[in-house]
């Protein structure tokens, strides 16, 4: 079966730097079955139209996580009584990117209520300051790593401040976030080692969050976690503690693992298109459209997975009930039917209906944050880096195929102004 | 006809959304001859949906609703003068100001007007409003801004629901009187209408279903209270008459066209029909006033008062009159939305004639749900209440006439399984 290897090729680390030719092959069949050995199979949607349609199809579920199965300890009391209870609690309180309505909607509404315009605006100003400070630290350098020096610390500081995580605890999150982000990589779900490690990590970060939530109840501050822990939404909803812990973890991990790729992919793309870099330097007002094109051209989240609850007829095929779905967002973004000359980076293209933030009810909660963090970072980099050059192209990539981005991005410079 | 030997004259009767899109479509299709647009209101085409929403809250001024247009200076506008008579033999359109305009092609898009309060004396009381045009909306906005003690809404259709819920948003007391068993019972049936009514009651609308206003009492020419047929009195200084619309077809009396208060009849292509059922190939109709056989509904004739329909059928008719042969009969899937306070009701398809309704997603009691209407074992319509994201998938079921009841499993499906009820149209 010729399709059999295409999804494997997407996952194959060898294609990480440039997965787009594989996506183009996948688009020859808008929805294709990938031979994964299961009865219902894994199906990949690769065109803009099919992805957009499936994103809002009620027969498509986000509840893709297999039932919790915490590692056994060998202690019979723990394994027979505590483990099933904990597994049950895990299943009941999944993070809301892995949940369907109505529960998803209630949890998301609580977050959106705290994600107020004032808070987001305040972080915008803060982002610009942070970028300035981070670049000031490297003022005399002749080479920077755009990831470690800016693209990682910026969104991490922003999400921690937004949630009210003390700055000194931030390093703990680095490892936790990297580990938990593997849950978005399809193969990790069937890997018992990774799942066991994720369970341990979830316990660790969950324990930390439980303590922090207690603290926010005793001493509420003006941050999102205090708000979520103490205030109900206008509809009168207040999250229970387990949902609150899970939701906080989701937000913190998302803040750690996505925007970093947007900023890094952004600088990489600009360095590969020096004319665009120069235009941005001269006109920072170009940043918003440039970032929309970036979200199309090199989206931080390349694909998301779903499951079918019923059979679905689409694009001439029938996806059976219970099938695994891969919505290849980054491929839909390169669909020539929607974006003429799709492999060209062109910030001036009209009507960029990209799928970079997903769509429908799971549309990225942090989209406004991501946009202005990227804007602050890229405009400052364009303005302040003197004669930036890529040290290696392509750069080394992080392992993830779904959350895809460079591990490091070394840039030689003649200084920072 | 753009390439025809003689220059033909086109008149568009009506100056609303369908008329505008029709005129634009003619130009885009290459018709460059004389084009005249006639409207009874003194305004260029404007957008009506905001009139019962943002205009009433004061967020949008009534005169900021003018529709953007691609029409150029080569279009003659005759505004403020209604069409009064059509003489097909002489191919002449007569206007209220006495003018007689010759035509070679005519687009009928005269739309509808608000059904007035049956007692004209009471209807003229200060404080009594209808809501159809820009001036109506501006006047009602001024009345609401004066913080009336209570607003009485007569009629529980979409406009009535929008006005009553909007009054609650403004912090005004509102009573809605509806003669049917529930809100929206004619269009959506009482099964769905009942749940929508519960939402509005939850938001503080004083809902009186199964009641009728017998008469409106005034003092010194001002509305002071309404008397219901059950003997109750409602003290109110503003009343909004929301009893539906009347189609503007009187001017077609004597034209020989098949027209009545339900609309002017068209064939499947879009040409109007005369009383013998023969198409008049010089005249097409579009928008609220056009009653046409819908291919999705077994050719049942309907006139649709929907925004998206006015656009799509306007374009269809405009191209037809410009000489573009249609590839298929006009048959866009009917869709509409209604913003009722913070509740958005959206619909795809036609509920008319449905024999069952299935609650397929959400929990109706929670105020967020999707209902699918079935007729003879096929999906004919879907309505979402605060769940618009699911509607496109359901529209697909309707467009393909999928078997009813639809798919058995879905995200956000009701916990107790899908309930199927009689729609309960009033």
TrEMBL record, chain A:
Cofactor (UniProt): heme
Entry's family note: Belongs to the cytochrome P450 family.
SUPFAM superfamilies: Cytochrome P450
Protein name, as recorded: Cytochrome P450
InterPro entries registered for this protein in UniProt: Cyt_P450, Cyt_P450_B, Cyt_P450_sf
The keyword rRNA processing is assigned to this record: no
GO molecular function: heme binding; iron ion binding; monooxygenase activity; oxidoreductase activity, acting on paired donors, with incorporation or reduction of molecular oxygen
Source species of the chain: Methylobacterium brachiatum
Keywords associated with the record: Heme, Iron, Metal-binding, Monooxygenase, Oxidoreductase
Region Disordered, residue ranges: 57-77
Function: Cytochromes P450 are a group of heme-thiolate monooxygenases. They oxidize a variety of structurally unrelated compounds, including steroids, fatty acids, and xenobiotics.
TrEMBL record, chain B:
Coiled coil (residue ranges): none
Domain of life of the organism encoding this protein: Bacteria
Keyword field: FAD, Flavoprotein, Oxidoreductase
InterPro entries on file: FAD-oxidoreductase/Apoptosis, FAD/NAD-bd_sf, FAD/NAD-binding_dom, FAD/NAD-linked_Rdtase_dimer_sf, Reductase_C
SUPFAM superfamilies referenced in this protein's UniProt entry, alphabetically: FAD/NAD(P)-binding domain, FAD/NAD-linked reductases, dimerisation (C-terminal) domain
Domain Reductase C-terminal: 336-410
Gene3D superfamilies linked: 3.30.390.30, FAD/NAD(P)-binding domain
One GO CC term, this protein: cytoplasm
UniProt entry tagged with the keyword Flavoprotein: yes
PANTHER family (UniProt xref): APOPTOSIS-INDUCING FACTOR 1, RIESKE DOMAIN-CONTAINING PROTEIN-RELATED
Protein name (record): NADPH-dependent 2,4-dienoyl-CoA reductase/sulfur reductase-like enzyme
Organism, scientific name: Methylobacterium brachiatum
